[in-house]
Design a protein that fits this description.
- The chain has 456 residues and is α/β, with parallel strands linked by helices.
- The chain folds into two domains: 174 residues, Lyase, Ornithine Decarboxylase, Chain A, domain 1, CATH 2.40.37; 236 residues, TIM Barrel (Alpha-Beta Barrel), CATH 3.20.20.10.
- It is built from twelve helices and 18 strands.
- The strands form two sheets. Strands 1, 11, 12, 13, 14, 15, 16, 17 and 18 form a nine-stranded mixed sheet that branches. An eight-stranded parallel barrel has the order 2-3-4-5-6-8-9-10, surrounded by six helices.
- About 2% of the residues have low confidence.
- The protein binds pyridoxal-5'-phosphate (PLP).
- Pyridoxal-5'-phosphate binds next to helix 10.
Amino acid sequence: MAVHAEGEGGAGSAAARRDLAVRAAVEQGLVGGGDGAEPLACLLDVAGIRASAAALTGAFAAALAPGTPVLHAFAVKAAPLVPVLRLLADAGLGCEVASPGELALARAAGVPAGRTVLDSPAKTVAELREALALGIAVNADNPQELERLDALVGRAPTPTTAPIGLRINPQTGAGAIDALSTATATSKFGIALRDPGARAWLVRAYRDRPWLTRLHIHSGSQGVPLALIAEGVRDLHALAEEINAAAGRRQVDTLDIGGGLPVNFASDAETPTHAQYVAALREAVPALFDGSYGLVTEFGRSLLAKHGLILARVEYTKTSGSRPIALTHAGVQLATRTAYAPAAWPVRILPYDAKGAPKTGDPVAQDVAGPACFAGDLLAAARELPRLAPGDLIGVPDTGAYFFTAHYGYNSLPRPAVHGFTVGPEGQVRFRLARPAQDVSAIVAEAGGDHGDALL
Ligand SMILES: *Cc1c(COP(=O)(O)O)cnc(C)c1O
């Protein structure tokens, strides 16, 4: 298996850019095999992110009736970094947020309220009030939240400009990963559309509230097949038509169809594509594109995953039970799901030598372990790779979403630096710091360092 750039595309390919960036990261001292060098760094391919954003917007623009309003709101939880949000905003995207922290990041990135969508199943009254005051779109999750909105919308001094909708669970079923399947019969999200009486309740809820103008769905993430996502969107569209027929006007004017396009973790191929997703939607719900509804999307993983790389030094190697093991600096703190659910979240391991050149050699089955103190802290088990040695580097591709941007503080391991990179026409690599590494004093402060006597 060719694990490196050879044979996987021309010099302009993502894999070629990645190998150039790894070499440059070592040469420029961002990470290294030697003593005193940084043991860990994370890279983001700026051109790749821009290409994915353009592919998303282009796929919908090509299918939608001209002039249809559309907002592609990036799901901030996938990569909650202000420079990433600003890059995506520059590419025409907005933000989907689901906590006060995510909202603050979107605002820090300069994303306007009118391009921000607030989801989350547990919004407080204060969060709802703030969103309405700012004019941020709100998708309510449940009838009790709707009652809170009744009080807030009714009592507001001026009518809110915030578009408000309800999240529906189409109950279309699970994908391959239960923990990421939001459209099961008993999912915690949204209003269960197929429960007895639900449809009639929804039609009434909209009839009684002229300010409810949106419907929202998000059928799940990695592991949910496109056809299942499309089926949920079809149900959402049918419900909107039913509500509008009962209302005698086009009360629901916008459908928020969520995100959830899965990502290929097995190779550099970007599949399925945003265009394939649009094609699946066109087949299942052709009327979605006829311009009678504005659209909101909320993609996360499919925009960022392929463009992130973890680079970590191999600190030691050993054998145990005759199995070779490489002890590296990348583990559960960066690849949390891989460590706890390895079958659902396999990652590729790309071997590099201490100079950052692709490492070759006869494949040997070896474990690639992280630095944390528990036995499950493995990135890969019995993986066939050239035999790793201390000072080598491993690259973990496809980690731009939900990996190093969703740090897990086990063992007080620090958040590593994140560097964006661009590659010039001559292959010269320019890095920009997007997030500094967390230093030890920040870890102490977060751990109550200023409250040391509190429990005496
Ligand atoms: C997580 C989430 C998304 C993004 O999902 P991806 O699989 O990253 O595209 C979109 N909408 C909602 C409501 C979410 O919870």
